[in-house]
């Protein structure tokens, strides 16, 4: 059951992220799970912008440590299956 509010760390707002990155990150964190598949396409539709802009936002969030890309591979043959994105309201790694 979804609640009518979301609690996120103030770290997001003091991180130096661009406002569009903060908006996308907060939107994702208010969902049922911080793990998404096919996320760039879904976000481009939701925010009515290009996938290229979403990919730039993803790169900014990853660089700042708020996003981790998890590459999914077939356990039998090692073939690439896709990417799952994991998000956090606190930096998961040192920004670089």
How do the helices and strands line up, and which of them pair or pack?
Elements: H1 19-29, E1 35-37, H2 39-46, H3 51-64, E2 67-73, E3 80-87
Helix pairs in contact: 1-3, 2-3
Task: Please give a handful of descriptors for the protein shown.
single chain; alpha+beta; three-stranded antiparallel beta sheet; globular; 96 residues; 3 strands
Task: Report on the architecture of this protein.
With 96 residues, this protein is an alpha+beta fold. The protein has one domain (12-87): Winged helix-like DNA-binding domain superfamily/Winged helix DNA-binding domain (Arc Repressor Mutant, subunit A). The chain is 34% helix and 19% strand. The protein has 3 helices and 3 strands; from the N terminus they run H-E-H-H-E-E. It has helices spanning 19-29, 39-46, 51-64, and strands at 35-37, 67-73, 80-87. A 3-stranded antiparallel β-sheet has the order 1-3-2. A hairpin with a 6-residue loop joins strand 2 (67-73) and strand 3. Helix 1 (19-29) crosses helix 3 (51-64) and helix 2 packs across helix 3 (51-64). It is globular, with a radius of gyration of 14 Å. The model has no long low-confidence stretch (mean pLDDT 85).
**What structural class should be given to the helix and strand makeup?**
alpha+beta
Q: Tell me the β content.
A: 15-25%
Shape: globular
Low-confidence stretches: none
CATH architecture: Orthogonal Bundle
CATH class descriptor name = Mainly Alpha
The string of secondary-structure elements, in order, is HEHHEE
CATH fold description: Arc Repressor Mutant, subunit A
Q: Major β-sheet, in short?
A: 3 strands, antiparallel
Number of domains: 1
Share of helical residues: 25-40%
Largest sheet, spatial ordering of strands: 1-3-2
Mean pLDDT, rounded to whole units?
85
| CATH homology group | Winged helix-like DNA-binding domain superfamily/Winged helix DNA-binding domain
Q: Treating each run of at least 4 consecutive H or I residues as one helix, how many helices?
A: 3
**What's the total number of strands?**
3
Task: Give the N-terminus to C-terminus distance in angstroms.
Answer: 37 Å
Gyration radius, rounded: 14 Å
């Amino acid at each position: 059951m979804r609640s009518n509010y979301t609690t996120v760390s103030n770290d997001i707002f003091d991180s130096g992220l661009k406002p569009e990155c903060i908006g996308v990150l907060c939107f994702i964190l208010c969902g049922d799970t911080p793990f998404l598949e096919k996320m760039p396409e879904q976000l481009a539709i939701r925010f009515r912008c290009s996938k290229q802009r979403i990919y730039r936002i993803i790169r900014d969030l990853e660089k700042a440590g708020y996003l981790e890309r998890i590459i999914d591979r077939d356990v039998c043959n090692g073939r690439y299956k896709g990417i799952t994105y994991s998000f956090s309201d606190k930096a998961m790694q040192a920004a670089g």
